[in-house]
Amino acid sequence: MKTEINLGQDAQQIQIFKALADPIRLQILQYIKQTDHPVACGEVGRAVNISKTSGSYHFKLLEAAGLITAEKIAREKYVTINWSTFETYVTNFTQRL
User: Fold this and answer.
1) Rounded mean pLDDT of 66-92?
2) CATH of residue 35
3) Helices 7-20 and 52-64 meet at what angle, rounded to 10?
4) What's the pTM?
5) Is residue 43, in this structure, part of any structural domain at all?
6) How many domains does one find in the chain?
7) Of the segments 34-38, 75-79, 90-94, which one has the largest average pLDDT value?
8) At residue 65, what are phi and psi to the nearest 5 degrees?
């Protein structure tokens, strides 16, 4: 008996869990979660003590996984947690952040 596999959803889950498997990205998510508004990437980077280059890399992975949303305003990028991704793929995870 063969089991049908939804490769699209599996690929999304793999990308999400890879993004969550890094301690720096978890710190980024924890910092964003404690704010009640979109927060500038530079502020998050300073809070978790990472360089702009490193921050750019981590934000890109988190955004590609659908864990954060980003909006560019003027010269700064603002990020928020994408709650719907957490609710769909990793229910109850954010309570542990």
Assistant:
1) 91
2) 1.10.10.10
3) 150
4) 0.84
5) yes
6) 1
7) 75-79
8) -80, -10
**Gap between the Cα atoms of 60 and 64, Å rounded:** 6
pLDDT digits (tens, 9 = 90+) for 50-77: 999 999 999 999 999 999 999 999 999 9
Structural domain containing residue 31? 23-92
Question: What string of DSSP letters covers 29-46?
Answer: HHHHHT-SS-EEHHHHHH
Please indicate, yes or no, if residue 14 is contained in any of the structural domains.
Answer: no
Q: What does the pLDDT look like over 11-30, one tens digit per residue?
A: 888 899 999 999 999 999 99
How far is C-alpha 62 from the chain's CA centre?
Answer: 3
> 74: which 2 tokens?
């003027």
CB 77 within 8 A of CB 41: yes
